[in-house]
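Backbone-to-sequence.
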């Protein structure tokens, strides 16, 4: 196979891999937005009693500091209370997870 056809084949495979990754992110975002609808209907008693900031405030803090687009926010119990793990898609195309303290709003990583 001539070298240029081989390079085109590699470029095509890389493009297909990127498209598949983007489709997977889109499916994850849609699934998360559906589950967020359920979460919004359920009372957040545990979070309200232990966290001073909400998940949406944690997302806003991360967006302001790092830019990009928030894809997902998960709530978990850390050693000191509630910790929000905010997953963002950066303009470079990289996914990054930022942990936010639920009491102070401080970035933990």
């Amino acid at each position: 196979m001539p070298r240029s056809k081989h390079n085109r084949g590699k470029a095509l495979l890389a493009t297909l891999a990127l498209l598949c990754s983007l489709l997977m992110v889109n499916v994850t975002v849609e699934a998360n937005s559906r589950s967020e609808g359920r979460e919004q209907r359920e009372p957040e008693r545990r979070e309200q009693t232990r966290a001073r900031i909400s998940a949406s405030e944690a997302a806003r803090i991360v967006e302001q500091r790092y830019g990009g687009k928030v894809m997902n926010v998960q709530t978990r119990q850390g050693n000191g209370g509630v910790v929000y793990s905010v997953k963002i898609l950066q303009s470079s195309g990289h996914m990054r997870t930022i942990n936010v303290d639920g009491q102070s709003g401080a970035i933990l990583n």
